Amino acid sequence: MILQQRRHRKPSLRAAFTLMEVLVVVAIIVILAGIGVAVFGYLEPAKEDVARATIKNIETATLTWKLHHDDFPQSLAELTVPTDGKPALLKKADLKDPWGRPWQYDPSKRAPTGEPWISSQGAGSSGRPIVSKVWE
Asked: What is the value of pTM for the model shown?
């Protein structure tokens, strides 16, 4: 008789999550957040490395310009324009640093090796502008 009563009962609908289900979801969220924090910790040094590499490319472009025009360009925008039937030395995207700000360029300020001043105001972790190795 007891068995018959259990058979005739309607299955109850779950109205809430169990404690175990909630704990599993919270644990997954904590693990994903930890991974995200670790990844973002590497983002800033990577941007600084990209800035240094781009500065080197800009230096090479300005030195190439000087070889063909006997002086450094007055602005970096000149390097994005094709001249004498040759392709541009820089892409327009190269005119912004990894933080989206324009590069600081001063052709009148020269390093002992002759390169013009090129730097990023950067959000460097050191708080200093990011400059070429010849200026450090």
From this structure: 0.67
